[in-house]
Write a structure and sequence with these properties.
alpha/beta; 6 helices; globular
Amino acid sequence: MHVRKLTGGFAAALALTFSLMGGQSVAAPSADADADRALAARVVTYDASGSAEFRSAVDRGAAIWNESVDAVELRSVAAGQRANIRVLADNGWPRALTTSLGNGTVYIGRQAVNEGHDTIRISAHELGHILGLPDRKPGPCSSLMSGSSAGTTCTNPYPNAAEKAEVEGNFGGAFTRTGGAVPLNVMIMN
């Protein structure tokens, strides 16, 4: 979330510049607060309590998205809070059921893990569906949303530049969706 941290420093630098140029410097905390609110990430909570042995992989997948984009932040749900995303482990194939942008259920299926697919890549990929990204198969390992088509040797859990930009577009500017986004109320089988 590096962009938001620059806002306050930029405003301070402008105020100092104007005062050094002989102009009148006026503190504008409300402008700074407005800019911070405009740049604030939409928080999407997830509940990984049902993800069994995949809990750490789910947390790492969420952290990867948090490192990769600014418009949305995935946070583990607080006690007593209802989560936007439920993450469950089962014996099937990994999949996601989106109910709306940023909401749905992710299943971390043991079938893909048993076949040798990386658990962190699976987690980040399925969370990508909840963030509005469709599968892009077949695809290279450099594309997170290529999923299992990249093969079991692919362990890349990071979205590429286009995938990052699409999520930013999905959650930025009045949360408008970009073309190619995941349809809602659809089970996505990977």
